[in-house]
């Protein structure tokens, strides 16, 4: 009997628990996985055609702009505030200090149009991922990544440019050039 109940429970969770849902307020073609934890939702500005995968932690309490076409894979963390430095240097004083104690970081994050956030990535407060950029798996973005940059490492450094990859794909599919230039501009590829 226990085996049957567990089997039914797993089927129900598969059907309901980790199924992608379509349509967010103001972004009818965007999808956020139900296993993604979204805190400070009032601070989120979500573009359309956004995909946010499974098991992410997204903190929008200090402001988070996710522009059109952004893809956030799985197991990513995007934070707009951080207390780890403040807690470490303030010790027990952290809990009783008024206001924001020294070391507390709070700043908005922006993810540019058609950018990609690879699995297990961390985006820190105040960071910007430029349009068309790729943040590789396990990368830690601290600061600004330029448009079309391929970023890798901890902390992330630019290791390439997506326009080279895009140019090769557009050469094979010239019918896509107008759509690409529509968001990337003529200098895109």
- Please report the number of helical segments: 5
Largest sheet: 8 strands, mixed
Helix content: 10-25%
Mean pLDDT rating: 88
How many whole angstroms does the radius of gyration measure?
A: 19 Å
Multimeric state of these chains? single chain
Question: Strands across the major sheet, in which order?
Answer: 1-2-5-8-13-16-19-20
- Strand-and-helix sequence, N→C? HEEEEEEEEEEHHEEEEEEEEEEHH
Detail the poorly predicted runs: none
The termini sit apart by 60 Å
**What spatial form do the alpha-carbon principal axes imply?**
globular
Label this structure with key terms:
189 residues, alpha/beta, globular, eight-stranded mixed beta sheet
Describe this structure in words.
This protein has 5 helices and 20 strands. It is of the alpha/beta class and about 190 residues long. The strands form 4 sheets. An 8-stranded mixed β-sheet has the order 1-2-5-8-13-16-19-20. Strands 3-6-9-14-17 form a 5-stranded parallel β-sheet, with no helix packed on it. Strand 19 (about 150) and strand 20 form a beta hairpin. The longest helix is centred in the N-terminal third of the chain and has 16 residues, at about 1-15. The chain starts with a helix and ends in a 5-residue tail after the last helix.
């Amino acid at each position: 009997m226990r085996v049957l109940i567990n089997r039914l429970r797993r089927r129900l969770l598969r059907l309901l628990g980790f199924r992608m849902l379509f349509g967010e307020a103001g972004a009818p073609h965007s999808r956020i996985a139900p296993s993604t934890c979204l805190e400070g939702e009032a601070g989120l500005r979500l573009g359309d055609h956004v995909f946010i995968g499974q098991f992410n932690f997204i903190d929008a309490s200090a402001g988070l702009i996710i522009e059109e076409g952004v893809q956030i894979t799985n197991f990513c963390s995007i934070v707009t505030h951080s207390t780890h430095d403040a807690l470490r240097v303030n010790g027990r004083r952290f809990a009783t200090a008024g206001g924001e104690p020294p070391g507390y970081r709070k700043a908005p994050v922006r993810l540019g149009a058609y950018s990609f956030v690879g699995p297990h990535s961390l985006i820190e407060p105040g960071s910007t991922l430029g349009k068309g950029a790729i943040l590789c798996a396990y990368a830690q973005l601290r600061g600004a990544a330029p448009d079309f940059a391929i970023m890798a490492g901890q902390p992330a450094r630019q290791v390439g440019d997506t326009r080279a990859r895009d140019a090769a794909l557009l050469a094979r599919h010239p019918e896509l050039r107008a759509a690409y230039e529509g968001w990337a501009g003529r200098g895109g590829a």
